[in-house]
Design goal:
The protein has about 375 residues and is of the alpha/beta class. About 40% of the residues lie in helices and about 10% in strands. It has a single domain, classed as Aldolase class I (TIM Barrel). The longest helix has 18 residues.
Length: about 375
């Protein structure tokens, strides 16, 4: 079987470069007409030639989303357990050189955070930590066992792990992994993570494959838009999603679309992604990956985020706090990133209902598969 790395490397070929640079609407129209989309079609859908057909793409993306997901929109929130990090990511508020108060919540503080979050109606929680020994597998496992008494669904966004560690966390109750490659451009990736534990591109790339082999229920991949030119990264993101869908039929594949907005003052977003480009990416992902959940976080403005539901988004974070202790305002320190959607979960729920969507706070239970 062709490896994921080889599949993504092929995106650098002259064939894909030509397709991504296509400026004619005709081949894009032909790609839209094909029932089963190929990687070549995805490249065409991401090309400049698609600019004249964004309305047609929107209609197709909307139709696919309605057929696969109906009016359901899943809601979740992150729960940060520590802001300690040994990483050097220059765009991150937790980078080790950032002058912020470093804390790791103890079990009692985490339960207080969890109970405060639960009172807002949130039932799906994403555990988030930096790259630090304080947030090791045993710590995360113990936390998960406690949180499973409060939330039906606990997922994680932590540094990449080995297969045995993923299995340990599944046994503790974790049912999903979020891990963004950040950029599939190896040269840019390496330049951003020199001297960091995140420096091993391939170990990070293959992490969700290890999680899939452990039969993790949800596999959430993504790119940090703004780090590299978006067309090629979007192509590789779609190829990655398809690879996971074909390899791990027991798992649900999700595509996260985090876009850089608020970054440290000493970092410049070299490849900014406009709202139009962002919508273009989202629609191409939906048209190519019919069954993938598409996640849009509180990084985006409320009005813009709500409009994305019409073209493929199926999962929102709500009421997010991006620092440990944020939900109870206990020992709070610097956040990982700033957010633009400050609505409460109730506010988001009400907005969804007004638009004719069904907010879903809980979408599964282990009892369903016993």
């Amino acid at each position: 079987m062709t490896s994921l790395y080889e599949i993504l490397k092929d995106a650098d070929s002259s064939k894909f470069s030509e397709l991504l640079n296509n400026s004619s609407p005709l081949p894009v129209k032909n790609a839209l007409a094909r029932h089963k989309k190929t990687p070549d079609d995805l490249a065409l859908l991401l090309s400049p030639g698609a600019d004249a057909l964004l309305e047609e793409m929107a209609q197709q993306a909307h139709t696919i989303t309605k057929a696969r997901f109906g009016n359901a929109v899943n809601l979740y929130a992150p729960l940060y357990v520590t802001n300690k990090c040994t990483g050097t990511c220059p765009y991150c508020g937790f980078k080790r050189t950032e002058k912020i108060k470093r804390i790791t919540l103890d079990f009692n503080e985490i339960i207080e955070e969890a109970e405060a979050l639960r009172k807002t109606g949130i039932l799906q929680v994403l555990l988030v930590s930096g790259t630090h020994k304080d947030a090791g597998v045993q710590y995360l496992s113990a936390i998960t066992k406690k949180l499973k008494t409060i939330f039906p669904s606990v997922t994680i966004e932590v540094p990449p792990l080995n297969s045995d560690d993923y299995q340990t966390l599944i046994e503790a109750g974790v049912d999903g992994v979020t891990l963004y490659q950040e950029t599939y451009d190896e040269i840019i990736y390496d330049s951003l993570h020199k001297g960091s534990v995140k420096g091993d591109y391939n170990y990070r790339l293959n992490a969700l494959e290890r999680a899939g082999n452990a039969e993790m229920r949800k596999l959430n991949i993504g790119v940090l838009w703004g780090l590299a030119p978006w067309r090629k990264d979007a192509l590789r993101l779609g190829l990655h999603a398809k690879y996971l869908e074909k390899s791990f039929w027991k798992s649900q594949v999700l595509i996260g679309l985090p876009r850089l907005h608020h970054v440290p003052v000493d970092f410049t977003i070299k490849h900014p992604v406009s709202n139009r480009d962002f919508v273009h990416i989202l629609m191409a992902m939906r048209i190519y990956c019919h069954d993938a959940g598409i996640v849009v976080s509180t990084r985006e403005h409320p009005d813009f985020r709500d409009n994305l539901l019409n073209v493929g988004a199926t999962m929102f974070s709500a009421g997010s706090k991006t620092e440990p202790g944020g939900y109870t305002a206990q020992n709070t320190s610097g956040s990982q990133f700033g957010i633009d959607d400050h609505r409460t979960p109730d506010d988001v729920k009400d907005a969804l209902l007004k638009m004719g969507y069904d907010p879903v706070f809980k979408d599964w239970d282990k009892g369903f598969i016993r």
